[in-house]
């Protein structure tokens, strides 16, 4: 059905419509902005993939809580 969806004359027609709508001066700016957006999207996607990867396994140690000494308890009461 969509075997030959975009033939060369389709692309020429799309380009002509874009030039008529936006003008030849705006098209390079639009292309530059699209390129920047794509680079940002790629870098964010790469960062998400890096965040999902498991880090090197670490030995989990429970944080040590020191028991309150009798002196600290009596000082806290007064």
TrEMBL record:
Bilayer topology term: Single-pass membrane protein
One example GO MF annotation: protein transmembrane transporter activity
Region (Disordered): 44-78
UniProt keyword annotations, A-Z: Cell membrane, Membrane, Protein transport, Translocation, Transmembrane, Transmembrane helix, Transport
Transmembrane helix listed as a keyword: yes
Compartment(s) of residence: Cell membrane
Compositional bias ranges of the Basic and acidic residues kind: 44-64
InterPro entries: TatA/B/E, TatA/E
GO biological process per UniProt: protein transport by the Tat complex
Entry keyword Transmembrane: yes
Gene Ontology cellular component list: TAT protein transport complex
Known function: Part of the twin-arginine translocation (Tat) system that transports large folded proteins containing a characteristic twin-arginine motif in their signal peptide across membranes. TatA could form the protein-conducting channel of the Tat system.
Subunit structure: The Tat system comprises two distinct complexes: a TatABC complex, containing multiple copies of TatA, TatB and TatC subunits, and a separate TatA complex, containing only TatA subunits. Substrates initially bind to the TatABC complex, which probably triggers association of the separate TatA complex to form the active translocon.
Family: Belongs to the TatA/E family.
Protein name as it appears in the record: Sec-independent protein translocase protein TatA
């Amino acid at each position: 059905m969509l075997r030959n969806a975009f033939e060369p004359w389709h692309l020429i027609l799309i380009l002509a419509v874009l030039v008529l709508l936006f003008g030849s001066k705006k098209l390079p700016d639009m292309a530059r902005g699209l390129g920047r957006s794509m680079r940002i999207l790629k870098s964010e996607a790469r960062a998400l993939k890096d965040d999902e990867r498991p880090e090197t396994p670490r030995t989990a140690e429970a944080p040590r809580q020191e028991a309150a000494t009798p002196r600290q308890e009596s000082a806290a009461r007064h």
